[in-house]
Amino acid sequence: MSEATTPAAPLVVNIQYVKDLSFEVPGAPAIYTRLKSPPRVDINLDVQARRVNEGQDVFEVVLAIRAEAKEATDGAVDGARVFIAELAYGGVFTLTGIPAESVEPILLVECPRILFPFARNILHDITREGGFPPVSLQPIDFVALWQSRRAQPVAGNA
Predict the structure, then answer these.
(1) CB count, 10 Å around CB of 27?
(2) Which of 91, 97, 104, 121 lies 20 to 30 Å (CA to CA) from residue 12?
(3) Does the domain made of 7-151 have the CATH classification 3.65.10.10?
(4) Confidence at 158, pLDDT banded by 50, 70, 90
């Protein structure tokens, strides 16, 4: 088969990039002297996908991660906020010859799987460089995340 007749790959990663990155330490510098144990970190993760240009099969997929750390406390009351890290890590993907019913799972499952290791490394590095134990995200089950999103009622259709 010659190069001229080779079919296009069904999924092409055009580019990956940091769309937005924020790291805040609201209690600095006092929090560094007060913190006696690693903070408790809560993670929020979301995946968004949108078509870049109408009529084209080029999509932007953004993996949004928010890590909020608070001082670990023995009581029921949360400790002071230690840091907030927010990352929007994006990619532009071209889909070629994909059946319409497969586009959504590719955009919300396969594309985030490609982006996730890079976003995880950025979050790890930024929290470490901020002077805290690095946040190391465990692998994410993007299939379960997509299925739970599909199971949620759409606003206004309840």
Answers:
(1) 15
(2) 121
(3) no
(4) very low
**Do 120 and 137 meet the contact criterion of CB atoms below 8 Å apart?**
yes
Find the angle CA(50)-CA(56)-CA(62) to the nearest 5 degrees.
25
Nearest alpha-carbon partner for 108 in 59, 58, 57, 151: 59
Q: How big is the chain, counted in residues?
A: 158
The predicted-structure confidence for 33-60, as pLDDT tens digits, reads as follows 988 888 999 999 999 999 999 989 999 9
Distance CA 143, CA 110 (A): 9
CB–CB of 79/73 below 8 Å? yes
CA distances from 144 to 58, 82, 107, 109 (A): 25, 30, 14, 9
CB 57 within 8 A of CB 97: no
Asked if the model's pLDDT at residue 125 lies above 80, the reply is yes
Domain boundaries, the chain: 7-151
DSSP per residue, 83-111: EEEEEEEEEEEEE-S--HHHHHHIIIIIH
